[in-house]
Input
Amino acid sequence: MTLAQKLFSFKGRIRRRDYWLLSLLLGVIVVVAYIVAAAMGVDVTSESDESTLLQLAVSLALIWPGLALGVKRCHDRNQSGWWLLIEFIPIVGGFWALINLGILDGTQGRNRFGPSPKGIGGDVDPELEKVFA
Output
């Protein structure tokens, strides 16, 4: 699976490692966007129109990749992507996401969403290796 497929497709499965690394990448994108905006003179700590537009733009840009990663982690656990709706439950949803998506291992071998993303021997994904080299 290519990096683009991991970030934008809702099909298939991804490993915990890929989920964490790509989630970290999305977080870095948010930080960089705010640093660039602050360098351009936008007061990112205020509730100004500029700050609100920045928050909206960053959120809209990253919602699809964030959902795609979550859905594929659910698939790796042999769950429907609809389980992500649990995240809307205050407090409980965050703990569920941390444990279910970020800590628990995926289904061993093939499941209804496809083959194991670990493959035989769990080789390093060359696409991710390029990004985080």
